[in-house]
Structure formats: C-alpha cells, structure tokens
Design the sequence.
C-alpha cells in the first residue's frame, strides 16, 4: 500500500479530473479493450487525444500524479504519466511504477510520456531488460527504442546482446518490442547495423514465431535504411 497525503488542492483536482473522465467515457472502446486483453481496475474507454486535452488543463505536479496513479483507473494512470514532472521522479519512483505496468498500453504510455524524458533512462533500460519479469523486459526494450540516440555504445552493445538472449520467447509484446529496439539500433551507425544483421542471419527461426518475427522486422528496417 502506497501512502498518500493529498493537499486540498490535489483532492479537488482529482475529483474534477474524475468527473471529466466520466463525462468523456466511451463504453464501446472500453469493451473492445477488455476483449483484447487490456486489463485495468476500471476502464472508461477515454481516447488518448482526449486524455491529452484533459492533462493540458493542469500543471505538472508530483503529488497530483501520484494520487492519480494509485487510483488504478486506466485514465488516471495514463494522466499520471502525463502530469508527472520528470525532474522530481526518482529512480525509486520509476521502479515502483514499472512494477505495476502489466499491459502493453500502460507500458507504452509510461515510456512515451515519462520514462523517455528521464536523465537516467539509459540505466533504467539496462536494469529493466536484465530483470526476469517479462513486462519489465518489455519496458526496457521499448524505452531503449525511444532513447537510442543518447545511449552510450557500451550500453547499446549490452542491450543488443540481451535482446538476442530474450528473443526465444512466446511473449508476443516482448518479441515485438525487441524487434522494434533492434530496428532502431540499426539506425545508429553502419557498424552496429552490420553486427545486428550478422546476428539476425545466424538466428534459428525454424518453428520459432518470435525469432522469425524479429528477423523479418529487422530485415525490413535494414532494407528501408538501404533505400534512403
């Protein structure tokens, strides 16, 4: 249980945000999300563009973001990633939030809206991919794909090696993010691209859907880069 002591202003803001979410709800979208496996404590089906509009009415606030996150509602959790000031978000905060990301949507949203803006994002990538938890690995590779331009070469090589170690998996979202990550790494320079291409060529893809998917996606990225 995370302790939370909201200010009167935060309480009023959260109540106002919850009312706005209810007024913006879309039951059809919520039902489709549930059918596709996106599980939340509560889901109102509010679109991401609408959530961005709601977030724009408020200033970034650490306590407000924390209060929204712990509600466990899809929309408040996503808004929390949008309203959390990166400068106040510690690595311990990041670890706690990451541990609670259990579906692909919240994983993508926290990487896009928050984790990719953190000064310690490279270290967080390594920490996540080295975890035994599938969702943490997924976050690590997804985050690396977003911040690949600022990664040190040693970090890139470590992530690259870990990607191939994790490639033998049945977890759909994990192998998709691995493919995305390796594709982004191909853009760094020709040496990295050649290394990845060689590793892909030596992969055993026979009767392995994950390896086959990764190989095909990376090959398409290499072809795209060659045509530029």
Sequence:
């Amino acid at each position: 249980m995370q302790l939370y002591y909201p200010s009167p202003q935060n309480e009023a803001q959260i109540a106002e945000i919850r009312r706005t979410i209810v007024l913006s709800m879309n039951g059809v979208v919520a039902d489709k999300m549930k059918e596709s496996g996106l599980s939340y404590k509560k889901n109102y089906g509010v679109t991401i563009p609408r959530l961005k509009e709601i977030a724009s009415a408020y200033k970034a606030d650490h306590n407000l973001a924390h209060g929204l996150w712990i509600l466990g509602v899809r929309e408040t959790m996503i808004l929390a990633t949008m309203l959390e000031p990166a400068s106040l978000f510690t690595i311990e905060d990041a670890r706690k939030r990451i541990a609670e990301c259990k579906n692909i949507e919240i994983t993508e949203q926290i990487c896009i809206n928050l984790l990719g803006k953190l000064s310690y994002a490279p270290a967080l990538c390594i920490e996540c991919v080295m975890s035994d938890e599938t969702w943490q690995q997924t976050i690590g590779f997804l985050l690396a794909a977003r911040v690949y331009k600022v990664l040190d070469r040693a970090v890139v090589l470590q992530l690259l090696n870990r990607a191939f170690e994790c490639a033998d998996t049945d977890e759909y979202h994990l192998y998709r993010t691995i493919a995305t990550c390796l594709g982004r790494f191909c853009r760094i320079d020709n040496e990295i691209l050649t290394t990845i291409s060689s590793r892909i060529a030596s992969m055993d893809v026979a009767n392995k859907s994950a390896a086959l998917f990764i190989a095909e996606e990376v090959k398409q990225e290499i072809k795209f880069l060659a045509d530029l």
Q: What stands out?
A: Residues 1-103 form one domain. The chain has a mean pLDDT of 94. The radius of gyration is 19 Å.
